[in-house]
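Per-residue structure
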Amino acid sequence: MPGDKVKFRLKYVVEDTDRHGTVRMYYRRPGQPKVRLHGDLGSPEFLANYKKAAAGPAKLRTQKDTKVGYVKHGSFKWLCLEYYKSPMYRQLGLTTQKTRRSILERFCINKGDGEKLYGQMLPRHLRNRRDAMMNTPAAANTMIKVLRQVYKYAVRYDLHDTNPAAQVEYLKINSDGYHSWTLAEIEKYEKTHPVGTTARLALALALYTGQRRSDLIQFGRQHVRIEDAVAWLVFTQHKGRNQHPIRLEIPIIPELQRIIDATETGDLTFLVTDYGRAFTNNGFGNKVRKWCDKAGLPHCSIHGLRKAAAKRLAEMGCTEFEIMAITGHQTSKEVTRYTKGADQRTRAESAFRKMTAEQTEDKSVPLFDGVAGGGTNMARNSLKTNMAGKLWQPVGESNPSFQVENLAS
């Protein structure tokens, strides 16, 4: 009937009386902060405040979402943060951790991909990111490799069902990678940096051990073992030392020992800076860059010497397993990548001698005049000895007393 008051009930409205007897109205909802409701009960002001308080949780969520540093649960960035806490990441070397984190941070920043839900990322989305980096295929492949590890973590810890990055193919890389030093380049470097300098010692360690720069900077007298009058380098490779440690024993050939003895070295490392301190990994790489530039070899690098050592072992006739015993590679695929540039002419010469030997046995006319006959083993041994001299004897010098053939056989 007209004039009757309409009664209605407002949820979560409570009264609170202070010590002075003043009654105040509040909006109190479990799990949310208490909100004061101004105005008389039922007045337009009161109802407006009530409506605003009831809409408060949504507003609070919006503010939280836009807050600096807030990471949305289920986003790819959130998955990365979880991955950083896992043993899969924390057991990696510090350098590897830093590299992976840098790659993932760049991935998250690009077009806001870090805010997208990782569960909704499909292979085609990651493939598009890969294709956008076609100008730098090696970097693109490294990114895919890291993404595979993140999703591998997600699958292993039941955060996702599949690994979309594993379905993305690597880009083909036409480059041969680091330039492999030639004999002429080694000779040019040696003329610029004579025996007794740290630069020359760095070259000798890299060429005669075939190790990475992270191992070269750690070699010291504590790694040397003498057995039957032969000095050996006994060490665990720095790369993968936490997950898949590889322990190697490499003979120190006389030429390397001669250069070590003629050089001023440190207490714990053979290679030291101008201040007598051990090199850092990056610091050593920068220093070699300067040494190469001084020798007029801007295209040469320390890693190229590792490649050159593996290549020349192949040219000497060493098997893949013999090369792996020196370089520490665990698969022949990696060795093949280093040795595919082995001297084609040398291999052709070996094949030619075998064919010539076979025809001689059959009393056939030689393919070419002036070619001496001989057995297959004789040809291989001759070739092996010649290449051994190129690899293990100092360029431009002679060392007839030293025979490396036994090391390669």
In short: The chain has a mean pLDDT of 81. Residues 76-167 form a domain with the DNA polymerase; domain 1 fold (CATH 1.10.150.130). The radius of gyration is 35 Å. Strands lie at 13-17, 23-27, 35-37, 224-227, 230-236, 247-251.
